[in-house]
Amino acid sequence: MAHDHEGQRVSRRRLFAGISSIGLGTLVAACSGSDTSAVTTSTGTTVTPQATTATTGDLAALFEGAGTCRLTATTTQGPYYFDADKVRGDIREDRQGVRLRVAIKLQDSETCEPLKNAVVEIWHCDAAGLYSGAESLSKSGGGNPPGRPTGAPPSGGPGGGDGGGEDGGSMDLKPTDDQRYLRGAQVTNAEGIVEFTTIWPGWYRGRTIHIHAMVHVSNERVLTTQLMFDEKLNSVVMARAPYSAHTGRDTFNDGDSIYQDGMLMKVSEDGDGYVGAIVFSADSDKDGR
After folding, report:
1. What mean pLDDT is predicted for residues 40-57?
2. For residue 143, is it within any domain?
3. CATH code at position 152
4. What pLDDT digit, counting tens, does each position of 122-137 carry?
5. Which domain holds residue 274?
6. How many Å apart are CA 267 and CA 261, to the nearest integer?
7. Which of 35-44, 108-117, 246-255 has the highest mean pLDDT?
8. Domain for residue 237, yes or no?
9. What pLDDT is recorded for position 169?
10. Average pLDDT estimate for 28-36
């Protein structure tokens, strides 16, 4: 995608706040590139349209077989989620790593129809295992509660299994620094698709390599899940710089507490990097189906 408003602080909450004054269709068109003029929300935020670089046809082969109309597994959001106020497609900023395009197709879990005009957020650690907004907490031994040994994995954080269960790590983080790399949100188009440009995530103790994702429909959180990668590809990427400087990886897919086969992205080479695709089936009306 072209990113005329990269770095602009536009929260997903303010996206929905602007709906009443300009209409969701117009707002989403501005975010997804189907319009050519900037619009201003009721909060005074100007959103410049983006152009789409990959068509649905380009991604069809990757989406084929990537998922079925079965409710996507919900997981803990982990300890490092917050609304990063970043509506953008390229979330790399200054982070170095292997380029990764992430394409997500969102559909309703009951009807299998595309869910358009939904907000999809993703966030993940960098090649060294650090999260923006929580760099000190996500360093080894950081953020430990009183009585926990120095150097031990933080409770509910990297090395702590991302909270370990649905209740653990479920509260939004108050950022401890002003970094926002590797975080962003996009609005699904008519086919229910969003696309991000990022880097292959790194790793930290106690967790396999993963990306967090959250879906909002009408300002309701309807899905929180995670994305994983085939271990053969993880091994190839981790052998390259800058990942190779971070040694001692201790947790792989088969030993991860959250991993499920349905979280695996379908990945192929894409120039000097990779492109991965996955289908999310979300319970948009939150009736459990």
Report:
1. 40
2. yes
3. 2.60.130.10
4. 999 999 999 999 999 9
5. 54-282
6. 14
7. 246-255
8. yes
9. 58
10. 39
Instruction: Centre a 10 Å sphere on the Cβ of residue 13 and count the other Cβ atoms it contains.
Output: 14
Residue 49, in any domain of the structure: no
Tell which phi-psi region holds residue 191, choosing left (phi > 0), alpha (psi between -120 and 50) or beta. Answer: alpha
The first and second tokens of residue 195, run together, are: 């696309």
pLDDT category, 279, cuts 50, 70, 90?
Answer: very high
pTM of the model: 0.78
Residue 132 lies in a domain: yes
Residue 17 has pLDDT above 80, yes or no: no
Q: How many domains does the chain have?
A: 1
Q: Are 279 and 67 in contact, with CB atoms under 8 Å apart?
A: yes
